[in-house]
Each structure stands twice: as C-alpha cells, then as structure tokens.
Write a structure and sequence with these properties.
By secondary structure, this protein is α/β, with parallel strands linked by helices. It has two domains: about 60 residues, Orthogonal Bundle (Arc Repressor Mutant, subunit A); about 180 residues, Rossmann fold, CATH 3.40.50. Helices cover about 40% and strands about 25% of the residues. It contains eleven helices and 15 strands. It has a seven-stranded parallel beta sheet, with helices on both faces. Strands 1-3-2 form a three-stranded antiparallel beta sheet. β10 and β11 form a beta hairpin. α7 runs parallel beside α8.
Length: about 250
C-alpha cells in the first residue's frame, strides 16, 4: 500500500508545482498526517521535492529555469566575457581560496586562470574540468543536484559542503541585475546557494556583461550593497551607480 501511495504522490509531483498536505489528506483519508509527512520527507531525500510549510514543492518545476539553455549562451558575448575574466584575474593573489560560480562567464574565467597555487571551489562541473588542466591549483567541486540549464550544482548537500570552506573571494554571475531587485537568477535552489556564498565570502565580486543589465528574474540572491565590486562592460544606470557609491561598491568598466 505504501508503494502504491508513493507512486501516486510521485505522479502528482511530476504534474504540479506544489502538493499540499491537505490535498494528500483528502486523497488518503485512512493515512495519518505523520505518515504523509514522512512521505514528503522521503521525496525530499530522493531529490524530487522540497518540504515547505503545508506540503511539498516539486523539484521538476523548481529546476525548470527561466534562463536560456547553457549551450545557447556559450557562444554569446565572447569578447565581453573575455574582458570580464581578464579583469577578474587581476584581483587574484597566489595562495588564496576562491569560489567560482557556474555559467559561461565563469567557464571563460576558468580557461584564463593562471597555473598558480590557488584553492578553488566551484559549483560547475564543467568549470572544475577546465580548472584541473592546471597543475598547481587545488580544485574542489561541490556535490548535490545538477541543474541542466546552466550545468551547476545546488541543494542542501551543496550548502553543507560549502559550510566547511573559507572563501577569500567569490566570483558570482547574476542572470539579471536591476536597481530595484538587485542580483537575480531564475532558479530557487541556485538562489539559495548564491545567497549563502555572498554571506560567507570575505569579498564578493560580480561579473556582469551588458545582456544582464536591467533584467530581473524571479529570485533575488543579493542586493547591490552586499557586494564589494562589479566588473561590467555596460554603462550602469544612475540608480545603480548611486547605490554603489553610497555603499562603497567598486564599479569596474572593461
């Protein structure tokens, strides 16, 4: 009976973004609330749902990002990404502990990274594969659930891994940035991880090409005042420049 019930719940999670505990109680009137809560915990442990107040959110819908597919973005704005990466490398000192975000801009940064004594942690499997071409660099890859859209790892396992690592400089790439909403991305789980990194890192540097400017995705992972520097190829609006100046955020145009 338990197997059949969980299969039915799995079908619901594949067709709906949210399944409430009340809904499950009506569907299975002979099953206790405690048992249904354990069912939700089971699907969370399987990476198929996130337990939230009143029920569960389906991972199928959470990981359906509003960003373009990674493969489509790979060849876009290459010259801009190259300039951003080149400037970011000038901030790196030998022996430091770094965090590299996922995405195509970070892949460019990884490819240009000097072969020096660095300890680098990344959420991007493809970033890690690029970094291990260096002989002196220590590369840590975060474990967890992979988002196919931007080839990044996130989730509770990733947060636990990162909790044990000290980060001198975190290089972060937003999917959008605006004065109203700050740095945004299209995936809730990724947002949670980026927020964690922003709070943890000693210094946060944002790399943003002009395609991300004045663009807001559903989830804000940090405000402009929470970062230390923004490297960009765009002329930033006055509202963003004011926020940066008021909070000591360095703006670097390349």
């Amino acid at each position: 009976m338990k197997t059949a019930r969980r299969e039915y719940i799995r079908e619901l999670l594949h067709t709906k973004p949210f399944v409430s505990l009340n809904e499950l109680t009506k569907l299975f009137p002979d099953v206790s609330n405690m048992t249904l809560r354990r069912d939700i915990e089971y699907f969370e442990s399987q990476g198929e749902a996130i337990k939230v107040r009143g029920g569960a959110r389906s991972m199928k819908f959470i990981t359906t990002s509003m960003e373009d597919a990674f493969s489509q973005r790979l060849g876009e704005n290459l010259k801009s990404k190259e300039r951003l990466a080149h400037r970011a490398i000038q901030m790196i000192e030998t022996g430091r502990s770094l965090f590299l975000d996922s995405g195509t801009t970070m892949l460019m940064l990884a490819s240009q990274m000097p072969d020096e004594r660095l300890n680098i942690t990344t959420t991007g499997p493809n970033i890690a594969l690029e970094l291990i071409k260096k002989t002196q660099t220590i590369v840590n890859i975060v474990g967890g659930m992979i988002n196919r859209d931007n080839i990044s790892v996130a989730g509770n396992q990733a947060l636990r891994f990162l909790d044990d690592i000290n980060i001198d400089i975190a290089f972060i790439v937003p999917s959008g940035m605006s004065a109203e909403n700050g740095m945004t991305c299209g995936n809730y789980i990724e947002c949670e991880l980026k927020s964690f990194i922003v709070e943890k890192a000693r210094r946060v540097v944002v790399l943003m090409d002009k395609s991300k400017l004045d663009k807001s995705l559903p989830y804000t992972f940090c405000k402009i005042e929470q970062v230390d520097a923004i490297i960009t190829d765009a002329a930033l609006p006055d509202a963003i420049l004011r926020q940066a100046a008021e909070n000591g955020v360095e703006i670097i145009n390349v």
